[in-house]
Amino acid sequence: MAISETGTVTAAERTAPPRSPRSTRFRRFMREVGWRYVVAALALFFALFPVAWVVTSAINPLDTLTTVQFLPKSTTFDNFTALFEGCNWSLGVPPFECPNTTTPFPLWLWNTVKISLLATSIQLILSALAAYSFSRLRWRGRRFALITVLLVQMFPAFLAFVALFLLIDTLEETFGEAVQTDLWVVAIVLAVVALFALWLLNRPGSEASQRAKRWGWISAGFAALIAVWAVINPGYGVTIFPRIGLGSHTALILVYLGGAVGVNTWLIKGFMDSIPTSLDEAAKVDGATEWQVFWQIILPLTKPILIVIFILTFVNLYNEFILASVLVQGVDQFTYATGLALFVDSDYAAKWGEMSAAALIGITPILILFWSLQDRIVSALGGAVKG
Predict the structure, then answer these.
(1) Strand partners, 179
(2) What is the rounded distance in angstroms from the CA atom of residue 94 to the CA atom of residue 17?
(3) Pairing between strand 179-182 and 96-97?
(4) What is the pLDDT of residues 246-298, one digit of tens each?
């Protein structure tokens, strides 16, 4: 029974029923922790509802988004199978051809994964090298270069569209034709290089490690597979130097390389600054070169931030639309994002069902990347916060 400020018990408090322990615990739970679950549930519903609507549209026989029911009366997978109609499997790169369709979705997915992986990998290598130079080396103009890199990243990418278009158009006059040769020529060169490397690694008195010898045998096996492929497909051609110009993937990759190198360099540099310099000094006392310090000491320690940057950059390039729509020409050269726009010719000629199915299939590479690296992502973010 509660007592008022005057020390007396009021009539309302005297007649009020006592509160049960269960009600008290529930009120305390909602006040301390429960409201967080409510907010999380609302946020989760807000984020997953559009995805659920896309799933419903993909399996709905009605090719519309406005009048479709969230729980359709009947379901169909024709929208998924329609994406692969007109495409045939083939022995080559890419492993399929789509000559009988105006929306070659498998080619778009292949182009996007190829461009994203190449651009992200090269961009990560350049960023790591630049970050090591800014973090560990001392040279004149280092601070000015750091500030310049940061200032350049502040300008919107829209300002460079015209300049990039004119630059790629100019490069096409010089590198407009790709340099190709037969596969057997490449196979012979790789076989000679692999055999020479094996002889160097396994000659008497060699100080090569078992890991280096193992990679030597793997390279030799890879060269042997290429030689076998050249025998099976004698007329198969290989591009030695690609074409650089409008409508080429090489030009798009080159443009992507300068997109986030500055930001990634700053992120990696900040992580490298947290690594004690005593490790570098101890390695150099033992006779390590600058490259060995970077490759064998600093780079393995920065693996957490490299994984996070790789995922973020890959997802960003995978979904990039504006640059790809400007620089890539030809339906077979489209990326995943630019190809989806072909499903919507107009408000009255839109294939919403196929577009929804393509969107669901298109997120598969990103989901695979997150599922395969989720443990490393958690440890990387935890290490970054700890550092």
Answers:
(1) 241
(2) 76
(3) unpaired
(4) 888 888 898 888 777 778 888 888 888 888 888 888 888 888 888 888 888 89
Distance (Å, whole) CA 134 – CA 281: 17
Please provide residue 84's backbone torsions phi and psi, each rounded to the nearest 5 degrees.
Answer: -110, 5
Identify the three-state secondary structure at position 226. Answer: helix
Query: For residue range 333-358, what is the model confidence (pLDDT) as tens digits?
Result: 899 889 888 887 655 567 788 888 88
State which amino acid sits at residue 21: P
Question: How many helices (H) and strands (E) in the chain?
Answer: 19, 4
Distance CA 136, CA 140 (A): 13
Cβ neighbours for 193, distance < 8 A, ≥ 6 positions apart = 223
CA distance 315 to 237: 32
Q: What's the rounded Cα separation, in Å, for the pair 387 and 381?
A: 10
CA dist 145 and 137 (Å) reads: 13
* Gap between the Cα atoms of 380 and 368, Å rounded: 18
pLDDT given for residue 379 in this prediction = 63
Extract the tokens encoding 259.
Answer: 């997109």
Dist CA 129 CA 312 (whole Å): 19
> Is residue 119 within 8 Å of 256, Cβ to Cβ?
yes
Measured between alpha carbons, how far is 348 from 331 in angstroms, rounded to an integer?
22
Q: What share of the chain is helix, strand, coil (3-state, %, to 5)?
A: 70, 5, 30
Q: Which residue has the tokens 């040279």?
A: 139
The amino acid at residue 265 is T
H or E element, residue 351:
none
Confidence of residue 2 (pLDDT cuts 50, 70, 90): very low
- Burial group, residue 353, by CB count within 10 angstroms (0-12, 13-18, 19+): buried
Q: How far apart are CA 213 and CA 200, in angstroms?
A: 10
